[in-house]
Structure to design on (384 residues):
């Protein structure tokens, strides 16, 4: 696993070649290939389409069942991104044009209650405490495993999901799948895209390639060497009442967030990265930025609280012309309890956006580091 090996059954010479050609145009990312051992799909540029699969191990699962699941996922994912495939019928054509698929795999809290896994989890690996705004619906809650697939090409995403489902049959049972999309960011925007409220989302982010890498990535400790390159993933499904939102005037919409709809600039500035001035008042003496707006509430209250957000829109369109729409809010941080939870608590306490948004699902996962060559994903934790 992880070698990028082409499936042994690929007798057609042209298929793997085609796959290689396409892979260089859109480099597929299973393991981040060099440097720090980190999974793809976290700090890599988010593909415009994404698919999350939440799966459970059997109730009476043992550590060996976890090991089997990880070996199979690792093997399937690495074959897929190499342009090979374990499924002969859909085979190479779909893998050719996968559009730079990135795959990330996470472990839920219950995995660390299996015998031989206890005491290996960091203390932050626990479901987000229930908030007064939560209205969870089945089936969108915590699962044992999560697989995130993202790419520029939705067909590539679908193909990868099909293969992973099929490989995991009999090893782990799917509980939910979620599909997300966004318009893609212009390079100058570095990951900022519009959500279904029309807001520019993903603007204020930690500098993960520079001095804030430790907001996302853990370092090894003597007691837990496997924490090197580990990150925490939070996925929350948040319904957005687009029908009511679009009846508001633009001033009310901008007031709810504290930033302009046109270019994302704070209401106290002209360009997106102008500082947010919470002291500024208008001629009536009222704050220009409402202190209960989303941005002033979500801003870090102390250094180190920043999280990397990777949100996607979702829409389930119904036959009757209505739609269930919202955000698949995905965030990565080194310590979910110290970084994500305080932000979420503040938002639950007061956030003007809460009038039009409802969290309907939540999960927290540990993403192991990317495996060294010849090892499978998570081996350094499972076999520690
Ligand atoms: C449907 C739900 C949500 C919507 C529509 C939404 C939308 C936005 C928008 C438009 C911005 C301003 C632009 C930007 O910096 O990206 C923003 C900022 C932010 N949001 Fe959200 N958001 C939602 C949920 C959440 C949740 C659940 C959290 C975390 C618990 C969160 C945390 C943040 C943070 C940390 C910022 C940056 C604040 C700053 O430092 O300026 N958001 N959000």
């Amino acid at each position: 696993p992880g070698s990028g090996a082409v499936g042994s059954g690929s007798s057609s010479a042209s298929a793997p070649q085609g796959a290689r050609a396409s892979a260089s145009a859109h480099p597929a990312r299973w393991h981040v290939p060099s440097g720090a051992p980190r999974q793809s799909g976290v700090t890599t540029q988010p593909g415009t389409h994404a698919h999350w699969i939440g799966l459970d191990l059997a109730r009476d699962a043992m550590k060996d069942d976890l090991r089997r699941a990880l070996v199979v996922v690792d093997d399937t994912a690495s074959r897929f991104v190499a342009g090979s495939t374990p499924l002969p019928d859909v085979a190479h054509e779909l893998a050719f044009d996968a559009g730079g698929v990135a795959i990330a795999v996470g472990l839920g809290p219950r995995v660390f209650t299996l015998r031989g896994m206890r005491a290996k989890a960091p203390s932050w690996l626990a479901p987000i405490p229930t908030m007064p705004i939560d209205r969870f619906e089945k089936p969108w809650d915590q699962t044992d495993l999560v697989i995130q697939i993202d790419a520029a090409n939705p067909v590539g995403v679908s193909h990868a999901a099909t293969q992973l489902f099929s490989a995991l049959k009999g090893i782990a049972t799917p509980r939910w799948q979620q599909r997300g999309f966004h318009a893609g960011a212009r390079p100058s925007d570095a990951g900022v895209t519009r959500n279904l409220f029309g807001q520019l989302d993903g603007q204020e982010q930690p500098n993960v390639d520079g001095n804030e890498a430790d907001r996302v990535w853990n370092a090894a400790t003597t007691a837990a060497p496997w924490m090197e390159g580990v990150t925490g993933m939070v996925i929350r499904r948040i319904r957005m009442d687009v029908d009511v939102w679009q009846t508001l005037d633009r001033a009310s919409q901008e007031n709810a967030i504290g930033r302009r709809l046109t270019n994302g600039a704070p209401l106290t500035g002209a360009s997106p990265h102008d500082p947010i001035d919470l002291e500024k008042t208008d001629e009536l003496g009222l704050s220009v930025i409402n202190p209960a707006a989303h941005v002033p509430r979500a801003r870090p209250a102390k250094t180190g609280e920043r999280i990397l957000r990777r949100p996607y829109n979702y829409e389930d369109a119904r036959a009757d012309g209505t739609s269930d729409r919202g955000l698949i809010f995905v965030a990565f941080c080194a310590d979910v309890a110290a970084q994500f939870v305080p932000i979420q608590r503040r938002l639950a306490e007061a956030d003007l956006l809460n009038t039009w948004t409802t969290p309907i699902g939540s999960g927290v996962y540990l993403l192991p580091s990317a495996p060294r060559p010849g090892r499978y994903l998570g081996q350094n934790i499972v076999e520690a």
Observations:
- The CA atoms of residues 110 and 144 lie 6 Å apart.
- The pocket of protoporphyrin IX containing FE is lined by residues 195, 197, 199-204, 236, 238, 240, 257, 259, 264, 294-295, 298-299, 307, 309, 327, 329, 343-344, 347, 353, 357 (CB under 6 Å).
- DSSP finds nine helices and eleven strands in the chain.
